[in-house]
Amino acid sequence: xxxxxxxxxxxxxxxxxxxxxxxxxxxxxxxxxxxxxxxxxxxxxxxxxxxxxxxxxxxxxxxxxxxxxxxxxxxxxxxxxxxxxxxxxxxxxxxxxxxxxxxxxxxxxxxxxxxxxxxxxxxxxxxxxxxxxxxxxxxxxxxxxxxxxxxxxxxxxxxxxxxxxxxxxxxxxxxxxxxxxxxxxxxxxxxxxxxxxxxxxxxxxxxxxxxxxxxxxxxxxxxxxxxxxxxxxxxxxxxxxxxxxxxxxxxxxxxxxxxxxxxxxxxxxxxxxxxxxxxxxxxxxxxxxxxxxxxxxxxxxxxxxxxxxxxxxxxxxxxxxxxxxxxxxxxxxxxxxxxxxxxxxxxxxxxxxxxxxxxxxxxxxxxxxxxxxxxxxxxxxxxxxxxxxxxxxxxxxxxxxxxxxxxxxxxxxxxxxxxxxxxxxxxxxxxxxxxxxxxxxxxxxxxxxxxxxxxxxxxxxxxxxxxxxxxxxxxxxxxxxxxxxx
Length: 486
Description:
By secondary structure, the chain is an alpha/beta fold. It has 19 helices and 14 strands.
């Protein structure tokens, strides 16, 4: 009977989630341009780790996103008479953000491939470039073009046009995909891969910024659609698309990409190269630590309170509630935290504009609650039944027995397990970087993209995580000793 209730509750939960995820975002009729003008902002989805198109710089201690795509976005917003708002997130989350209405457009080195056109509409191409291959300069003589990489490992950003080209036009090569270009460069330098296929402007920027790298023309056969970059827009947003195309035509007529945008990006890259010291980026790491600690602290509170409540309900006698929360615990423990973060951010975002920080914190807290509830339940059940019986025989109510007799003993026994959960939580918050939360991992990516340095930012992040977790473990150990001496 218990299993039946659990299965019914779990199926109901899954059906609710599926029902939410399949709700259409855009109503019939095209009022896309009118909506943008009415709210006064143009929200642009962007993954700022793709110089010279989009990347971040440290300007007076503050993070600033710059690059060719950013200047184009500013021009479009100016033509529309609205303010440009840049929403940062990982590259593979951009399409989901557009489809769920989190952003009005994607301007982030996007190519209008046939697969993407099934889900979104595209503007006219605003910039056309070749596909180059980045390699270690010491191996420059071994490789001439894409045909030289037979039997070699070739990297590309996950979900990019470059990744598709490696599959289609480098059949003898083994494709290695990663979410971040900086990780690919790090793998290249460590000789884990032999080359990286990237847009020519970006590949040349990497080669010019790192004396150990070189960029060669891959001689790929690319259609005009795949070779170009375009702006992705929601399906049916024709009025907004036409307005965007007018801005693109204006920019192309004045040749602003070659005359202005590329030069501006080059100047920013040059300034970054002049200040590659990690000390210059301490505000980035400090901001990342602040977000990580803040999210962890709030998530711990959510996890503790909700976890204790779930444990008490599951130990109760109301079968319906027990089945519902058992299904909740099993479902949360049976799905990856990354998927939960994305579902809460994009799923709830279909109905309510929840911020990335709130969504990430809520997801981590709800995930933690499932595990904390099991810790509480195990600790409460470990207390001998004689303790409860003795308390009740002395006239204590069930509520007072739990509060004054069972829980104090249970907390003492489960404290080490709770401490481990808190420490794990600090490390698990790193997953929120996929939706653009500026935690320590996100800032690590920013510094990597800015400095073209792979290992040193990682080493700094590792030390900072160790300091946070070690300090917390010492603090928890202190309270554990006080409990045992009480």
